[in-house]
Specification:
The complex is a heterodimer of chains A (505) and B (356). Chain A is of the alpha/beta class. Chain A has 17 helices and 22 strands. In chain B, helix 3 packs parallel to helix 7 and helix 4 packs parallel to helix 6. Bound molecules: adenosine-5'-triphosphate and magnesium ion.
């Protein structure tokens, strides 16, 4: 096969950080090439260099054998290289159609809406996507937003598509659809660079895998040469994956009692409908369900971010139904949100400041009205080393951290206050395997100390591994409980699609 | 060949320092041609500006005097900037502050110097604070755009002061000029070095220090920084954004109000029509160029002071028209703002016209 793109000895530094040290690899026409590496290994940075968003300090890019220098993403797009970013770049208040139109080349000042609409609809139909062109972007799920980004690139007729952790925000079903689309594109002769931390997907789809470690490309393996273990060893190297043991030890004491909860969404439809759930002390209760069946509403209602229409949330004697986020937190509920960039962090503040966002009023972080900077920095040092957060420099704003490291900052903050109850939405999303294991360990350790967890995840393996009980949610209602020791993936799958119920606990 | 702009990945601290310096140099060259055209030797003119504004005790003191209200108002505006709130109304808040201080000085019946100072200070802060607080309240309560409200409140404040100095507060012995009576000595700041330099300048420095500590060291400053960076995350962490928006605009206006106090107590000794020749608007530029930092506000204000004093002397020495002085100051500001652009972008010559 012909080499479409060659990357040679790329180096890229930021003040105080060497993000890419020495990276070389190549992409052939019609291949799916996966980039694998720990959080902060430099994957996103490399892709940004490829598309001209960043300019390498050293090294060269060869497209079709000829050296190129991209000055901006517009530039690389014109040469057929397009990228879907880890964090999307859409205008939330506009419709899907407007967002796509914005990205198109040579739209005349006065355009015929119909022809463009047809053109876009053709692509949607060709790949069997399910997307309403007139919907406003902010109302769409993150998965749907990703389709928009992809359609933009398909319209531009890209030869090389770069997808930075596309599946992190997709349900397994959506991911399967994405893979089908990618395979179709591959058959059309297009090349794809794919980034993911999920081994199952990597094994599934890659023709070749290049492993990045600390800003260096350390190996490129062909299909057949790699399996899970080799890749994991290459990626993590001498770093140990933390070991942990689950011990079932929940008590019968109920810490959170959700009774007949109903929550409506922005469109006035019921997100949660007469939903009841009991959380016991020290247990890890998984919520399984196809995304969009009310999980997010449940988390937001529990943490006070969304008003409750009907029903009650009780914690012991206390009624939490109508309280602000702060009051809920004081009563001991920690929350790992789904949308980390928009509500999880203050992007312009440094790691230390972000880690105390919820506890800055705590006496140990202040002297009267003044902040206790020494304690705040000490806390940051402690969390950074415990959660292996890779920061550039201590004072750098968190917005410059890699996606996975931002997620770690949020998790470290939420779990640091020894919460009584943790509501976690997709907590290991975007984390590399070592970090994901560490987060599992922290959750199980917490459970051993009496912390109760509501774990909302889409990865059934994760739920089966971690949980004491699994509750299945379907169309905003509780379908039933499953016991992870005895149930099967198939049984849960049937319950998730609403075909089987089992109410027992 | 084509000239393209390209976003920098990072802006180095070195660049952040040199870009403004270089931009001033460019502005001086451009203005130099203007000067040549009017038959003035630019080098001589620049020497004159520097000498007049920095070269003598008197010149230096005048520069500091001019910088004083800019520091106050600039600090106020920059505090609001920290929270992504645009206080365009510093001008009105200066007028209100001056009005409040004048009321205490003339009509409170106090005679003790320190009591008077404290009373005038407090009145100026309250008047300026309330003036901006109105916008804060409307914004926090009904999401009314604070830019419009603060801007329109300027006109109300200026007209209100005009009403007072043309009407009820006019000095009966003032030959019908739009002025109040002069303050008693007890209601005036001390002067230093036999110049017009007054305590207001030192108060401004103190204010900058306090504001710095407030923003970087206190838990309130911390909340303002979080809200300024991501209001959604702040709400999620349980911070009261509405209350903070009101408080920040109030404080922002209060600090700008102190500029009015400093002008009447340190310089004019009375309230008059046109008490501020647009310091409040210049303060917006000051805050912008200072990048929200308190030290930056001081530095930029001093630079503006040099321009103002130097401009006056050019006008006197070479009989240059006032329009020229404005053009000159405009050029320098324009170049400084351009430097801002070059800190984020760089220009690049690329060969070929298509890709590069
Ligand atoms: N604009 C920037 N300024 C400073 N440092 C940066 C910037 N962008 C990236 N970095 C640093 O470069 C390193 C590599 O980051 P990158 O985002 O490429 O990691 P990644 O491999 O994509 O990780 P993840 O799997 O978590 O997304 C990180 O340590 C990050 O802090
Ligand atoms: Mg990344």
């Amino acid at each position: 096969m012909a080499e479409l793109l060659q990357i040679k000895n790329i180096r890229k530094t930021f003040p105080g950080v060497v993000a890419l040290d020495d990276v070389s690899f190549s992409v052939e026409a019609g291949e799916i090439h996966t980039l694998l590496g720990e959080n902060g290994a430099g994957k996103s940075t490399l892709m940004n260099v490829l598309t001209g968003l960043y300019h390498p300090d050293r090294g060269e890019l060869l497209l079709d054998g000829k050296q190129v220098q991209f000055t901006s993403p517009r530039n690389s797009l014109a040469r057929g290289i397009g990228m879907v970013h880890q964090h999307f770049m859409l205008v939330p208040a506009h419709t899907v159609f407007d967002n796509i139109l914005l990205a198109m080349d040579r739209v005349p000042l006065i355009y015929d809406r119909k022809t463009f609409q047809q053109k876009i609809q053709k692509i949607i139909d060709e790949f069997e996507l399910d997307l309403d062109l007139n919907a406003r972007v902010w109302k769409l799920s993150i998965g749907a937003q990703q389709w928009i980004e992809l359609i933009k690139l398909l319209l531009r007729d890209c030869r090389l598509l770069i997808l930075d952790e596309p599946t992190a925000v997709l349900t397994p079903q959506e991911a399967d659809r994405l893979f089908a689309v990618l395979r179709r594109l591959q058959q059309q002769g297009k090349s794809i660079i794919f980034i993911s931390h999920k081994m199952r997907e990597v094994m599934d789809i890659s023709d070749r895998v290049t492993v990045l470690k600390k800003g260096r490309s350390i190996a490129t393996l062909e299909r057949g040469q790699f399996d899970r273990e080799t890749l994991a060893t290459l990626m993590i190297g001498s770093d140990q994956i933390p070991q942990w043991q689950k011990n079932l030890q929940m008590s019968d004491k109920i810490v959170l009692d959700i009774r007949n909860l109903s929550v409506r969404n922005d469109r006035g439809l019921a997100d949660l409908d007469d939903f009841s759930l009991q959380l016991k002390e020290g247990e890890i209760l998984g919520i399984a369900g196809v995304a969009g069946n009310g999980q997010k509403a449940l988390a937001e209602a529990l943490t006070g971010l969304k008003p409750v229409n009907r029903g009650r949330i009780l914690a012991g004697e206390q009624d939490l139904t109508h309280s602000s986020a702060r009051a809920s937190y004081i009563s001991g509920i920690a929350h790992i949100p789904e949308d980390r960039k928009s509500i999880g962090i203050a992007p312009d503040l440094n790691v230390a400041d972000n880690l105390i966002m919820k506890s800055f009023k705590n006496p140990c972080y202040r002297h009267g009205i003044f902040q206790n900077l020494r304690a705040i920095r000490g806390n940051a040092r402690d969390k950074v080393s415990r959660f292996a957060i890779k920061t550039g420099s201590d004072t750098a704003p968190v917005r410059y951290l890699s996606g996975g490291n931002i997620q770690k900052v949020i998790i470290a903050r939420e779990l640091s206050e020894r919460p009584k109850v943790l509501v976690a939405l997709y907590p290991t999303r975007g984390l590399d395997i070592g970090s994901a294991e560490y987060v599992h360990k922290v959750i199980t350790d917490g459970a051993a100390d009496g912390m109760s967890t509501i774990l909302i995840a889409e990865d059934l393996d994760e739920l089966l591994k971690l949980c004491d009980r699994i509750a299945v949610i379907f169309r905003g209602r509780l379908i039933g409980y499953a016991d992870p020791r005895t149930t099967t993936r198939e049984e849960i799958g049937l319950m998730m699609s609403g075909e089987k119920r089992r109410i027992a606990s | 060949m084509k000239l393209v702009t390209e976003r920098r990945d990072i802006s180095s601290p070195l660049l952040r320092f040199f870009a403004p310096v270089a931009s001033i140099a460019v502005a001086l060259v451009c203005a130099g041609f203007l000067l040549l055209a009017t038959g003035v030797n630019p080098l001589e003119a620049y020497r004159e500006i520097l000498y007049e504004s920095l070269g003598s005790v008197y010149g230096l003191s005048e520069t500091l005097v001019k910088a004083t209200p800019l520091i106050f108002a600039g600090l106020g505006v920059s505090l609001a900037f920290r929270m992504q709130i645009w206080n365009i109304g510093a001008e009105g808040q200066i007028y209100m502050g001056a009005m409040g201080a004048t009321w205490v000085a003339l009509f409170s019946g106090l005679t003790n110097h320190w009591l008077l100072m404290a009373g005038m200070f407090a009145a100026a802060m309250i008047c300026g604070g309330v003036w901006a607080g109105v916008a804060g309240f409307l914004r926090a309560r009904w999401e009314v755009n604070e830019v419009i409200v603060t801007l329109l409140m300027n006109y109300i404040a200026i007209l209100l002061v005009d009403f007072l100095v043309y009407g009820p507060w006019r000095d009966p012995q003032g030959f019908n000029f739009p002025l109040t009576a002069q303050f008693a000595d007890a209601a005036r700041f001390a002067n230093y070095f036999d110049t017009r330099l007054h305590s207001g300048f030192f108060l401004a420095l103190l204010c900058a220090l306090l504001l710095y500590l407030f923003m970087e060291r206190t838990i309130w400053g911390y909340q303002i920084r979080v809200i300024g960076s991501n209001p959604q995350a702040a709400r999620y962490a349980g911070m009261r954004t509405g209350k903070t928006i009101f408080a920040v605009l109030f404080i922002s206006g209060a600090i700008a109000g102190v500029a009015g106090f400093s002008e009447v107590a340190g310089l004019q000794y009375r309230l008059s029509h046109g008490i501020s020749p647009g310091y409040g608007y210049t303060a917006i530029i000051v805050a912008w160029l200072a990048r929200r930092s308190a030290v930056g506000v001081i530095i930029v204000s001093l630079l503006m002071g040099v321009l103002l004093v130097g401009g006056d002397s050019l006008q006197m020495l070479w009989q240059l028209p006032i329009a020229f002085i404005y053009a000159f100051q405009g050029l320098i500001l324009f170049c400084l703002l351009a430097a801002d652009f070059f800190i984020v972008y760089r220009l690049k010559l690329v060969r070929g016209t298509r890709h590069g």
